Amino acid sequence: MYIEGFKEGEPYTSLTRCIAINLISQGFKLNSEVHSAYRILEQQTYQQLTDLLEIHFLNLAAVKGTKIRQAITTKKQEKLLNWLRFIETDDKEERAMLATTSPILQMLNEKIDVLSLNPEERKLYESRMKLKSDIATISEVQFKAGIEYGLAEGEARGRSEGSRQKALETARILKQLGDSVQKIAQATGLSQAEVEAIK
Known about the structure:
By secondary structure, the protein is mainly alpha-helical. Helix content is 57%, strand content 9%.
């Protein structure tokens, strides 16, 4: 784990920082802290070997007490505590309440709810998800078809308006050159009334 990305022949000083995070619960009594962080020290001199290796312990058993909730002073601590309580609890209602504190916990709670469905409920859930996907696919296909139709319609209208503008411009020039209204109408495809209206 620690030597991943470490190239042969490089000095150990080029190792990148490694942080190990361990979730512990009952049966592993480290201390009463929710979060404990350790580094490697020499046993007699207590000199730190390196600051590139840290071992963290998150104590799930410690998140249950009311003292812990009273000791929270920052949003960061509150988020960590909510995460740990979410991981630790088996209570569906508590998990749902904790899920309201974070979009990620909300997503995780939904996944856990799906995983805990019985086979019949899971089939129903999967058929609902399939229906939603089918509806989304149909909507996407119809939307793309609508866009393509709109673009084609816009192009056709643009060409038509462009052709009309070109015919009017040509008629204006021919009229200035003194050609007859009938000849101009024949050359441009405009009606005689349209040609007469040109100034």
